[in-house]
Amino acid sequence: RQEATGKDEL
Amino acid sequence: MNIFRLLGDLSHLASIFILLHKIRTTKSCAGISFRSQALYVLVYLTRYLDLLWGPWLLYNTVMKLFFIGSSVYVLYLMKFDYKPSHDMGLDNFKVEYLIGGSFVMALLFNLAFTFDEVMWSFSLWLESVAILPQLFLLQRTGEAETITTHYIFALGAYRALYIPNWLYRWVMEGRVEFIAVFAGIIQTIVYADFFYVYFTKVIQGQKFELPA
């Protein structure tokens, strides 16, 4: 789930 | 990282500095919704739970700590240093519905039915409507200081700029996060009326005034 786009955004 | 995301984040940072500048120079938080500010604290605390366990990317971590810290600081300023200037009577939007509705949406739409994932989804839905008490206050006063409108614009532009960022990432990386995108689109639609008045009045050098 870490690779979901939103997870590396603010 | 792409130009849209970077501009979005810079716009978000700018909005906070504009807000702090407004409070400091006018020595007043008149026209600023305490309720919206409190919702942002809740948004950041539930969104950035991963600060507790990582992974800690330098850029993201610094920004997350700044968003949490500055939003708590604004609440502190409003509650203590500039309390008398706070429009208590007019700032009475029922935030319980926003929190409750966001929680229901988070229970229905999440990446996994776990505490952190439900909180992450909750933060996205809540952020999409967290500006409503502020816009409601604007509506009730009928006008706003220009600097306050710059603050609201920069805060709205941040999420609007995330939309081309998501499109870019969808095309370039083949990844898309539907909860974030859908909530982000709702958030931008919530600002639509405000953007319209901002572009047609404030940018032309006129005062932000709503038609009676």
TrEMBL record, chain B:
Gene Ontology process terms (BP): protein retention in ER lumen; protein transport; vesicle-mediated transport
Transmembrane segments: 56-76, 97-113, 119-138, 150-167, 179-199
First-listed, main subcellular location of the protein, grouped into a coarse class: endoplasmic reticulum
UniProt keyword list: Endoplasmic reticulum, ER-Golgi transport, Membrane, Protein transport, Receptor, Transmembrane, Transmembrane helix, Transport
Matching PROSITE patterns: ER_LUMEN_RECEPTOR_1, ER_LUMEN_RECEPTOR_2
Compartment(s) of residence: Endoplasmic reticulum membrane
MF annotations from Gene Ontology: ER retention sequence binding
Any Pfam family matching the protein: ER_lumen_recept
Keyword S-adenosyl-L-methionine: no
One cellular-component annotation, GO: endoplasmic reticulum membrane
Topology term for the membrane: Multi-pass membrane protein
Family membership: Belongs to the ERD2 family.
Name of the protein this chain belongs to: ER lumen protein-retaining receptor
Lineage of origin: Eukaryota, Fungi, Dikarya, Ascomycota, Taphrinomycotina
